[in-house]
Amino acid sequence: MSLDQRVFAWRGHYPNPRAGSGSLAGLRLGVKDLFHIAGLPTAAGNPDWLASHAIPEHTSPVVTQLLSAGAELIGKTQTDELAYSLNGLNIHYGAPINPRSPERLPGGSSSGSAVAVAAGDIDIGLGTDTGGSIRVPASYNGLFGIRTSHGLISSEHMVPLAPLFDTVGWLTRDARTLAQVGEVLLPDNLPRQFERSSLRIAVLLPLQNGALWTPSHQTWLKGQSILQGFKPIVINSDWLIRASQCFRMLQGRAIWQTHGEWISQNQPTFAPDIHARFQWCATLTDADQIAAEKERASLRADIDNWFTDVDLILLPTTPGAAPLLGADASWMDTYRSQLMGLTAPAGLAGLPQVHLPVLNDQGAPCGVSLLGKRGSDKALLQLAIDLCGTHS
């Protein structure tokens, strides 16, 4: 398997009469291989999916909007199988190499998009985020990334994972390009900035095997003059475990409702860890879903309370640097649960979240997230520019 095939499911020149004009003119686009593009196959990271589905006749409206704004489509980027992983490893097509930290995971499931942006092969990496699939690879590869408010951007003509939580997102090397894409894809009526120049913020202080908001996070925060009125919110490990388990339950139930029939009929070959997760999804019941929905309501009430008297919330995007390649499987299971404790709040509440690549851990990238109220997507993107400037 060539390095190129690990990153791109298809690479070439897709005809675009609008190329060279529009707000995204001159920017190279890579599209996660979940979005349908007329005339190009969609594999969703799995050869059995590819073999059992016709070549799309319609193009995702998200892709159409980006092309209409002048972006140049040069490839469809690889994804973890049906987007059901946060690691960025694919047993069929190989693992893209993390350009910023080759000995570590690239992160998934928008792995190809993230690696292609980090390597400089593309300028815009279109992806999806259900349980962290933009935020996690953004952190691991030192990129800017946004998970948008649930339902704001069309998921039509796209392979779903769990529609209850699926969102469209994108990755770039700089905050300005991240915001430029937002101007194209996000609704025009969203506020473009926060009402106050000096923002009131809360800082989420998650406790998982120690404090995840580290002195490095705090040092960065103290240097940001436009962020004021720090309200600490201590979140213990029990809450994070509840959030992770609730999200996984509802996600798993939605996944099986979406893909269970195809999996049962086709018996596709998946990586062992992904296969095990699909098998677990098949065991979930109506009673499990009802209990998880009740838990979600409780957790969402907590999240709503976080925003009392604050404009936005800061939190660590991931527990730290990307895990090393070859990490022990049982350790990775524990790590995945911890990671999803951090990514679950945005998913459970349908909120937008922007990753800023402003920190390092063990010589590898990580960073800080801006978690906003629903519909604050454009304001978060402008704030990312205010905090980090227009250059990568």
Automatic annotation (TrEMBL):
InterPro entries associated with the record: Amidase_CS (IPR020556), Amidase_dom (IPR023631), AS_sf (IPR036928)
Domain of life (superkingdom): Bacteria
The molecular function terms in GO held by this entry are: asparaginyl-tRNA synthase (glutamine-hydrolyzing) activity; glutaminyl-tRNA synthase (glutamine-hydrolyzing) activity
Question: Where's the Amidase domain?
Answer: 21-185, 267-381
Q: What class of enzyme is it?
A: ligase
Q: For this protein, what is the EC number? A: 6.3.5.6, 6.3.5.7
User: What are the entry keywords?
Assistant: Ligase
NCBIfam families in the record, alphabetically? Answer: PRK08310.1
Q: What is this protein called?
A: Aspartyl-tRNA(Asn)/glutamyl-tRNA(Gln) amidotransferase subunit A
Source organism per entry reads Cellvibrio fibrivorans
